[in-house]
Design goal:
This protein is of the alpha/beta class and 274 residues long. The chain has ten helices and ten strands. β2, α2 and β3 form a beta-alpha-beta unit. α5 runs antiparallel to α10.
């Protein structure tokens, strides 16, 4: 977590994410990249190249740079290396491109979540980034004066395909000296006996060097509700999930539990791409 990208729209929620990112960067001797995406009202393929639009573009760009510089002067960023980027692009596309170009290790985003019609047909930028990002994405919903991770819940089916993202979750947990709570959520449509679930988790753990780990089985009517209720029961500071990055009809019909958690959880959520 040496290089952390924080997209900002200058909202309170975005600043909550920046404050958390600053704490993580200080613990890991890391640096911060502040990114603001300029989505112009009439943005299109020729918007930036049109001579008549240059004064408007420069106005928005200079205003964004001024706000970014004000953010960089905040006391909670003292002692950190902080750089700024203003990009003319749709937020979702730009965040992913900038993260790849700068080889970032972590994206930290604030999110209000989404619900109902908006969630189904539009979704939040955070949800889209979670679905497609190749690097871990940490979603922050509330202000945290001190971001500590003592209890880190990682929910999964613990299949072999989850091992690669789980390695990143282990690294995350170990850096915070957190207890990693592995949980299998049993539902009526996908039930495992306790002995089978425990065996699956213990077999999955072999080969991983986890400082502190506990395994759990939790019964609930659906997986998302089970994860949220279990996280509350152990007073979790963070919920972790792997994500498949489904697209198109597969995503529409099958959904993604990690993206639902991004929208509905009040606790911080970190996702790791399979």
């Amino acid at each position: 977590m040496k290089k952390i990208l924080i997209p900002t729209d200058f909202s309170e929620t975005a600043e909550y994410a920046l404050k958390v990112a600053a704490q993580i960067a200080k613990k890991n001797n890391g640096e911060i990249i502040l990114l603001h995406m300029l989505e112009l009202p009439h943005q299109g393929g020729d918007a930036v190249n049109s001579g008549t639009d240059i004064p408007e573009i420069m106005f928005f760009k200079n205003a964004a740079i001024s706000k970014l510089e004000d953010l960089m002067d905040e006391e909670y960023l003292d002692g950190l290396k902080v750089s700024e980027i203003v990009q003319f692009e749709m937020a979702f596309d730009g965040i992913l491109k900038i993260s790849q170009l700068n080889n970032v290790d972590l994206i930290v985003m604030g999110s209000h979540g989404a619900s109902g019609y908006k969630e189904m047909f539009i979704g939040s930028n955070a949800e889209k980034v979670v679905r497609h990002s190749e690097v871990p994405v940490l979603i922050i919903k509330k202000e945290a004066e001190t971001f500590e991770v003592n209890n880190f819940v990682f929910a999964s089916d613990f299949s072999d395909e989850v091992k690669k993202p789980f390695a990143k979750a282990v690294e995350f947990a170990n850096k915070f000296d957190a207890t990693l709570h592995l949980v299998t959520v049993n539902t009526p449509n996908n039930f495992k006996s306790t002995s089978d679930a425990v065996e699956t988790m213990h077999k999955f753990l072999s080969g991983f060097d986890v400082k502190k780990v506990e395994t759990h089985i939790y019964n609930e009517t659906n997986i998302e509700k089970g994860i949220l209720n279990f996280a509350n029961s152990v007073n979790a500071d963070l919920i972790g999930m792997s994500t498949h990055g489904r697209k198109g009809l597969s995503h529409f019909f099958n959904g993604s539990i990690s993206e639902d958690l991004v929208n509905h959880a009040t606790k911080p959520v970190v996702t790791f791409k399979i």
